[in-house]
Write a structure and sequence with these properties.
single chain, mainly beta, Rieske Iron-sulfur Protein, four-stranded antiparallel beta sheet, 11 strands
């Protein structure tokens, strides 16, 4: 089941947007015209990744400074220890959509 999140045009290159849909709080990232979606909540504490700093494909949590790879969800810097959940993204008529049952690898 695809969940439409936002028009792709509202997320500028190198930026992110917090989106709440169907009980999920997600973060939509635009990296050079490619869109990625992760959970918005940091896995370490109460930080919101949509408010974090983005450098290349890394987002730094604004709360404790931990960092994640936006493309893979892998931990890039402590104090984070648990990877971030990522979602398979599909653009449908200019809208960023996710299927929460699928991961980026097709799972």
């Amino acid at each position: 089941m695809k969940i439409p999140l936002c028009p792709a045009s509202v997320v500028a290159n190198g930026c992110s947007l917090k989106v709440e849909r169907e009980g999920l709080t997600l973060c939509v990232f635009n990296l050079d015209g490619r869109f990625y979606v992760t959970d918005d909540a940091c896995t370490h504490g109460p930080g919101s990744l949509s408010e974090g700093a983005i450098l290349d494909d890394i987002v730094e949590c604004d709360f404790h400074g931990g960092a994640f790879n936006i493309r893979t969800g892998a931990v890039e810097a402590p104090p984070c220890m648990q990877p971030l959940r990522t979602y398979a993204v599909e653009l449908v008529d200019g809208t960023v959509c996710v299927d929460p049952a699928r991961t980026p690898g097709g799972g």
